[in-house]
Amino acid sequence: MVSGETKQQILSAAEEVIYRKGMQESTISEIARRAGVTESVIYHHFKNKEDLLFSFIGIHMEEVLAKLEEQLEGIPEPTSRLSKMIWFHLRYNETHREYSRILLFECRSNRNFYLHDAYGLIRRYAEVMLSILRDGVERGVFRKDIDIRLVRDLILGGLDWETLGALAAPLPAHASADIQEIMDLVCMMIESRHFQAKMDMDKPTRIVVAAEKLFSERGYRQTSISEIARLGDVAEGTVYEYFKNKEDLLFSIPKIRFKEHIESLDEVFQIKTPLRKLRRFIRYHFYLYMAKPEFLKTFLLDIQLNPRFYETEALTFLQEYATYVDEIIEEGKKDGSINPSVNDRVFKNLFFGGFCHVALRWVILNEETKVDKMAEIRQLVDLLSGALSNRNQ
After folding, report:
1. Long-range Cβ pairs for the range 268-276 (8 Å, 24+)
2. Which of 21, 105, 371, 96 is nearest to 113 (CA)?
3. 349 occurs within a structural domain
4. 137-166 per-position pLDDT tens digit
5. 0.70 exceeded by the pTM?
6. How far apart are CA 189 and CA 142, in angstroms?
7. Predicted local distance difference test score (pLDDT) of residue 198
8. Which long-range contacts (C-beta less than 8 Å, at least 24 apart) are formed by 13-17?
9. Domain assignment present for 268
10. Which pLDDT score is estimated for 199?
11. Are residues 289 and 356 in the same domain?
């Protein structure tokens, strides 16, 4: 048997054994017997059992990437491409339950997986979604101001929690049935027509937001009014309708921000509106975990991606914590501020799963010092609350 065929035989045997017995109970000797080779032959091709596991997951990911390319072929419109990718993701996990179980519970929970070549294929998969979002922004279909990486993390994290819920269910569950409700939330977050209608009502705010961003990135002196107008999507003359000059615009920033702070003080101790409650809850959730980095790392890898967690009493505490989101959403549906068609469970998957995906990038993938976490949290709050907002009110 030639070397390439031998390696494939070993990978196939490993997949069969590990799917049947799990990573911990599987042994190299059993895999060798199943493959019809000696243990030394396995070690000639793979460093250890972990390398073998990651490698056959990598083979699957190559298949996933090829199938995804087929699914997206001939679909030029970004929203349709995004919807197709989300459906494909959920459907593939449903029809390959053992693969998704091993990927989430055995690989994604292992810090070493993030250093293996197989994880590079996961990143390529995530890049496909990123490219769809980027194309949508460039075509004007999606909002210009969104951080597409954050949106991608929210979506992929939500899909993770959809899959985890399906895997933990006592009976086979079909997460792909949620596709329309997932897309409804995603479109509310990112489609430009919703955002533009809101933004056109308040051009001064658009100008201030653009100025604030450019001043922070390039400095006040290096920023021109024309650049601010371009980023704010207004004519340069429109800026002068609201502000005397660049200096007046500069000092309008603290005026507006401090006014917001003063108004928010009214609800520090008694938040009155559901959407404000939700925004406060999202910020609180992020800050709570940021203050406990040791617990955060443990939760991301050793708890949420451990199948036994879903059989413990600890799960009921997470579920009780999550009911606060249900209560806020139901209150918002009653007063009309939250879209009555929102599926509470799907939104919670998007929120909590998205949080885990973003936090994983921060603390596990060594990006903690490279990103402005506060800025990302602010946009996440806007995206998630925007997904629920009743635009018809």
Report:
1. 273/335, 273/337, 274/328, 274/329, 274/331, 274/332, 274/335, 274/337, 274/338, 275/332, 275/337, 275/338, 275/385, 275/388, 275/389
2. 105
3. yes
4. 999 999 988 999 999 999 999 999 999 988
5. yes
6. 9
7. 46
8. 14/52, 14/53, 14/56, 15/56
9. no
10. 45
11. yes
CATH number, domain with residue 185: 1.10.357.10
In contact, 274 and 332? CB cutoff 8 Å: yes
pLDDT at res. 197: 44
Q: Are 155 and 129 in contact (CB under 8 A)?
A: yes
Q: CA-to-CA distance for 225 and 210, rounded, in angstroms?
A: 10
If asked whether residues 382 and 312 sit together in one domain, one would say yes
Question: Which residues of the chain fall short of a pLDDT of 70?
Answer: 1-3, 170-173, 193-201, 260-270, 366-370, 391-393
Q: Which of 152, 175, 190 is the last residue of a domain?
A: 190
Residues 180 and 88 in one domain: yes
Whether 56 and 181 share a structural domain: yes
**91 and 162 housed in the same domain:** yes
User: Which pLDDT value is given to residue 370?
Assistant: 67
The predicted pLDDT at position 149 comes to 94
Per residue in 96-128, pLDDT (tens digit) is 999 999 999 999 999 999 999 999 999 999 999
The length of the chain, given as a count of residues: 393
Question: What is the count of structural domains for the chain?
Answer: 4
Q: Which of 81, 275, 326, 281 is nearest to 183 (CA)?
A: 81
SS3 215: helix
- CB count, 10 Å around CB of 115? 10
282 and 211 assigned to the same domain: no
Question: What is the model's pLDDT at position 363?
Answer: 81
What is the structure's pLDDT at 233?
87
Report if residue 334 sits inside a domain: yes
Whether 25 and 129 share a structural domain: no
What is the CATH number for 246?
1.10.10.60
Say yes or no: 68 and 183 in one domain: yes
Parent domain of 128: 49-190
For residue 41, what are its two tokens? 């032959």
Pick the closest to residue 386 from 337, 352, 340 (CA basis). Answer: 337
